Amino acid sequence: MDELDALLHAPSLYDEFVRLRARRGLPVPRELVERDVTQPWVRSSGFVGALRVVYADRARWWDVYDMCEKLVDVEEMFQLWRLRHVKTVERIIAFMRGTGGSSGVAFLRRALDQAFFPELIDARTTIGRG
Questions:
Q1: How many angstroms separate the CA atoms of 88 and 105, rounded?
Q2: Is the CB of residue 112 less than 8 Å from the CB of residue 86?
Q3: What pTM was computed for the model?
Q4: How crowded is the C-beta side of 52, counted as CA atoms within 13 Å?
C-alpha cells in the first residue's frame, strides 16, 4: 500500500515533461511547475505558448519536439485501445450495466473525450495563427 501511495503522490510523466520544458528555458507557467501533483491536471493555455515555441523552431528544440510527438503517439494508441474496448463491450453486453455498476458503454464512450496531454493538441490548433 505504501508503494501505491508513493506513486499517487509522485509527479506524472506529463508533470515531468512540463518541468523539463521549464528547465530548458521555455516559457512554462510557474503554477504548472509547482503544482500539487495529487490534484487532477487542469488544461493550461499558458503551456500552449511554450509548445508553440517548440513547433515554431523544431530544429532548435528537436528533442522537445520529438518528445511531443511521442506523447501524441502514446495518447493515440491508448485512445485506439479505448475505442476497441468500447466496441468489444458493446458487442458483448450491449447497453447493459457495466462492471462495478457503471453505465457500461455510455461510461466508456465518455472516456474517449478525455485527453492525456491536452495542450499538445491545443498547440496544433493554434499553429499558423498570430
A1: 9
A2: yes
A3: 0.80
A4: 15
